[in-house]
Specification:
Layout (H helix, E strand, L loop, with lengths): L5 H16 L2 E7 L1 H4 L3 H11 L5 E3 L21 E2 L5 H6 L2 H8 L4 E5 L2 H5 L4 H18 L4 E6 L6 H21 L6 E5 L18 H39 L1
Parallel strand pairs: 1-2, 1-3, 1-4, 4-5, 5-6
Helix pairs in contact: 1-9, 3-9, 5-7, 7-8
Length: about 240
């Protein structure tokens, strides 16, 4: 157990207070189930209500899409791209540029629906996920990564492939997990009813948006707290070095 001097303890306390006020950059990343949805506004509202006002949504998209969400006054930035596939995003290194333009500390990823529709196999999708995780960590070695077991869709053949993909995600994530850059798996599938929670067979309606926001929320809070703690530690170490110097 590490023991601190009185000054070090004071520095740590000051550092934590400073880190609490530091911005934590959060990127909602995915396809249309991230872009043309209302769960981002609900999530923003929940984080604000919890006092996590230092969480800044980042991404190249910055409009309310679709219009008419129950929450309209929120930080709309995101990196959701309708019709995009994880395989293509990975192979074309698109996430690299998106993260260069909008660096993040925390990222949620809901991808795979379009890959399934366009006949990518589970192994191909997971290989793309692995590439994307590597790109996230190249951008930020301490990136907190939150990956969804994706929501169901109303098309039975494709949905069976989604079930297979979702079943493979936990062991895939475990194999890539690290202390500095943990991967959290959020089960967006269980409890989501394709017959009542989708507006068009693919995208969530108001009930579905509420379920998605509720599922993301605890993982994002945990990730934000980890980033805040790391920021506090860094502030403390800087103050200790300055004192020694």
């Amino acid at each position: 157990m590490m023991h601190f001097s009185h000054f070090a303890a004071l520095a740590a306390a000051v550092g934590f207070a400073a880190a609490q006020n530091a911005t934590v950059r959060y990127m909602p990343f995915g396809d249309s189930i991230t872009e043309i949805v209302c769960w981002r506004g609900l999530l923003y509202q929940q984080l604000q209500a919890a006092g996590l006002t230092n969480v800044n949504f980042v991404g190249s998209n910055d409009d309310e899409n679709p219009a008419g969400c129950s929450v309209s006054n929120y930080n709309e930035h995101n990196e959701g791209h309708s019709g995009f596939q994880a395989v293509n995003i990975a192979n074309q290194n698109e996430l690299v540029g998106w993260l260069q333009a909008n660096p993040a500390d925390v990222i949620t990823m809901h991808l795979g629906t379009n890959d399934v529709v366009y006949s990518s196999t589970t192994s191909e999708i997971l290989a793309a996920f692995t590439t994307l995780v590597g790109q996230m960590r190249a951008s930020n070695a301490n990136m907190k990564i939150i990956v969804a077991q994706i929501i169901p869709i109303s098309y039975a053949t494709w949905n069976s492939q989604i079930v297979s993909l979702n079943a493979a995600i936990p062991s895939w994530a475990s194999g890539l997990n690290s202390t500095a850059s943990p991967i959290y798996v959020v089960d967006q599938y269980t409890g989501f009813d394709a017959s009542t929670d989708l507006r068009d067979g693919i995208h969530p309606n108001a009930a579905g948006d509420a379920k998605m926001a509720a599922k993301w929320y605890p993982a994002i809070v945990q990730a934000v707290n980890e980033v805040t703690n790391q920021q506090a530690q860094e502030q403390s170490e800087k103050r200790e070095l300055a004192f020694v110097a």
